[in-house]
Structure formats: C-alpha cells, structure tokens
Write a structure and sequence with these properties.
By secondary structure, the protein is α/β, with parallel strands linked by helices. It has a single domain, classed as Rossmann fold (3-Layer(aba) Sandwich), CATH 3.40.50.300. Helices cover about 60% and strands about 10% of the residues. A five-stranded parallel sheet has the order 2-3-1-4-5, sandwiched between helices. Helix 1 crosses helix 8. It is globular. The chain binds thymidine-5'-phosphate. The site of thymidine-5'-phosphate has 11 residues, from helix 4.
C-alpha cells in the first residue's frame, strides 16, 4: 500500500513560530476540505510524551550526552510515526508535523559538528521511517536574538530555552546546511515577518505545489531561495 496523504513538517530553532504556523496550516487545509492531522513528533503518543518528559527532567540535572538524547528523541518520534503519522498518511490524511528528524540532525548532530553522527544518523532515519520523507519541510529562519526575545515573552522557560545564543546559532546553521542539501524538499522562509505575512506565503506555496498545475515551473525558478 502507498502513502496517500502529504507529509509536511515545520522546522526551525525555538521561538521561530512553528507551533502557531502548524496550527494555521492545519486549519487552512480543513477549510479546503482536506482531511489532516496536526502532531508534534515527540508528543504524538503516551510513550513519546513520557520519553520527552524524561529528557526534560534529566537535562535539568545535567546535560545529556548528545548521542543518548538523539536516541531518546528518535524513540519518541518513532512511536509517534508508527502509531499516528504512518496510519494517517496511509489513510490519505495530510500530516502537519511540528519537528521531525531534521531537528535531531540540527540539534544533536550539527550542534557538535559531529560528521560521523550526521552520516550514521542519515542511515538510521531511512531504517526507522522506511524511506518516508516529508514531502515538504517549511524551515522558519529567524535571527537568534529575535527568537530569544520571543521565548522570553512566553513566561515559563524550559531547560532548552535557557541554552546560549551561540548554541542556537550553531543549530540554526545546521538547519540551513540540511536545507541546502535537499533544496526540493525545503521551503526556507524568513520568519522575521508578521504572522499574517508568513501565513499568506505558506498558503501561496501550498497552492502552487499541490493545488495548481504549475509547480514544475515554480521549482525551476525558486530552487534554494529564501522567501
Ligand atoms: P520542542 O520545540 O518540540 O518543544 O523541543 C524542545 C527542545 O528540544 C527544543 O529546544 C529542541 C530540542 N530538541 C532536540 O534537541 N532534538 C530533537 O530531536 C527534538 C525533537 C527537539
């Protein structure tokens, strides 16, 4: 059986607007009568949420080795994939996902500039997700100082929110490097704009890619360009 729904992921550093825009896209698709679900990759099942809580709790005591935390994030994600993402895609629903494997690659791989990890992780991801990749990944690119200000206005900061600006800068570069290696999958958006402006761009892009017939011309003209 083939996957029938589209798989769209949102990526970016903390405070880039993924959660708000995932909800927006899900609501937009519903308004167009497209069956869809909105999910957070490490919060889709009870097991995933428990693993995530363990990561948060342990990180508060001492930083977790990045290989260990990447395996934990992957385990949570795999459980969400098996029980929520894959069944929905095969039923024909679109899946709008807040983070996926690019996050582990950017946070745990690029944060430490660990090339061996990056290579091996790519194999693990094929094995774990049966070669199912997001059809589209919307990367929300934002200056780290602006993301920091947004995080601070949320009130409650978790242990990841308290990491340094230089850490976030490395992760941000990681996301950009990943996007440059897969230009067709990624849509890089300048997220330092009003939510309304970004929403309009997303709708336009979704319409171009999936609802209109001119995506081929669009791809040729826009490869790798940040919008
Ligand atoms: P969140 O954005 O889903 O709430 O993620 C919480 C923090 O965990 C955030 O700082 C990013 C970090 N994280 C990783 O380091 N690796 C991962 O694979 C994922 C999914 C998140």
């Amino acid at each position: 059986m083939n996957k029938k729904g589209k798989f769209i992921t949102f990526e970016g550093i903390d405070g880039s607007g993924k959660t708000t825009l995932s909800k927006f896209l899900s609501d937009y698709l519903t308004s167009q009568n497209i069956p869809n679900i909105q999910v957070v990759d490490t919060k889709g099942t009870s097991l995933a949420k428990n693993i995530r809580s363990v990561i948060m709790m342990e990180e508060q005591k001492a930083p977790i080795d990045s290989f260990v935390s990447s395996m934990l994030f992957m385990a949570a994600r795999k459980d969400t994939y098996n029980n929520v993402i894959k069944p929905a895609l095969y039923e024909g629903k679109w899946v709008i996902c807040d983070r996926f494997f690019d996050s582990t690659l950017a946070y745990q791989g690029f944060e430490n500039q660990d090339e061996e990890f990056i290579r091996k992780f790519s194999d693990l991801r094929k094995f774990s997700f049966e070669n199912i990749r997001p059809d589209l990944t919307i990367l929300l690119n934002i200056p780290v100082d602006i993301s920091q200000r947004r995080i601070e206005t949320r009130g409650h900061l978790d242990v990841f929110d308290e990491k340094s600006l230089s850490y976030r800068e490395r992760v941000k570069k990681g996301f950009l490097t990943i996007s440059m290696n897969e230009k067709d999958r990624f849509l890089c958006l300048n997220a330092n704009k009003s939510t309304n402006d970004i929403e309009k761009i997303i709708v336009k892009e979704i319409r171009k890619r999936y609802f209109d017939n001119n995506f081929l011309n669009y791809q040729i003209n826009n490869k790798g360009r940040e919008i």
